[in-house]
Amino acid sequence: MTKTKRYCRRCDQQFAVESAQRSCPECDTELVSWHDGQTLELDTVSFATAESVGDASEAPSALVGKRLAHYQIERFLGEGGMARVYLAKHLTLERPCAIKVLRPITIERDKDAAEAFLAEARSAAALVHPHVVALHTIGEADGRHYIEMEYVGGESLGRMLERSGVLEPLEATRLMLQVCSALAAAHTFGMVHRDIKPGNVMVTPARDAKLADFGLAKRLATNEPIAGRMLCGTPNFMAPELFTGKPATTQSDIYAMGVTYYSLLIGRLPVETQSINELVRFHHRGSEIDIHPEDCGLPVGVVRILQRALAKDYSTRHEDATVLYEELLATFGSLRPLRSLLQEAFRNTSVDIVEQAERFAICVRLPSDRQQTVQVEISEDAETGESIVRTFSICGRAADQFYERALQLNATISHGSVAIQSIDGEPHFVMVNAYPRATCDPEEIRKSVLEIAKHSDEVERLLSDEDRY
After folding, report:
1. Residue bearing the bigger pLDDT, 43 or 457
2. β pairing state of 352-356 and 67-68
């Protein structure tokens, strides 16, 4: 049977147990995932008094099959320390939704929990974004406080990681881009998430990512007092400065994004310890996380992002998610195969794409039954050494009598330029354009190919009135 790592909060110890085992082998307390565990929501007290954040007085299934306000509770989906989530049916609108219900024991332990739960949900509800799990409404019924949210079919990124193992850099970066776009919207809105981790990212059946659990107050329990402050977050994803009592910021969110990205790519945490206290001591020592491309086999651009996002000094990290997004986008562009870019660029069109050794030939049909072949290739800028996407199309042989005309055309062409290139050992006029590989997207390629085809055909007409190329 497959073994997995789970953590006992009472023992402050990690155990390798069978995947079906949910209780601590030492004290029988409920185990949580060490890698992507529940957020701990306790004051800075010792584990001796924090035996469990579970609610022994009410099983998770207690609400299943019952009605709560306008909802029929159908299935238990999951839980954190603060609330439980259920699949429900809105009886008036007859639609599925997710209902997050605050645990009664949470209110018993913290009289302000309900107000904090609902007040911060109101703030999060104002954030409307395609990669954020939408909050529809909040309310109270039968003494229970709840939030109605968008129901996202699929699974959490954490479960996907457990099931599938590590992701390829391209797929991991694509998902992180979507999460980062959501977080960037929150940061722009003045919000800090405080609990970024794979378990708080839902992945739809179409493999799109949606960030969940915005703005909920989280508190961490630890054996050692930390500046007398309350902490919020999931320990393994918390930035080093949070363990010294500093408040959560956009840059502590960035650190959590770095841990998440690392987990998707490597399949483990960047800091591997056996307990929270050991994790705290690691951060107190001021240790940096060493990541080297030659050791992990990751692309240099990916490693550069990880090194910056996981820096111990928060001022070294990306300022916010918008800055991180731009760097992820540039890296994603450099990872994506040219074939994939071209297929997306010309999806649902009549354009023919043929792979030819190190480049692609695209036949573009033009008015008056003419056509033009455009070549697309990955090249290197001679001056900067930067990887570029180069598009070009042959206009005709570079005969001496056409040089002056070609120079005149360069002054009038709005897209690309006429250049001379050796084709099969002979000089030819070509219409050419180039974009940085890192930031070139399918729409840019599509426009470039169509413009190059149009202008090179016009030049071919002027030079020879033929339609050879």
Report:
1. 457
2. unpaired
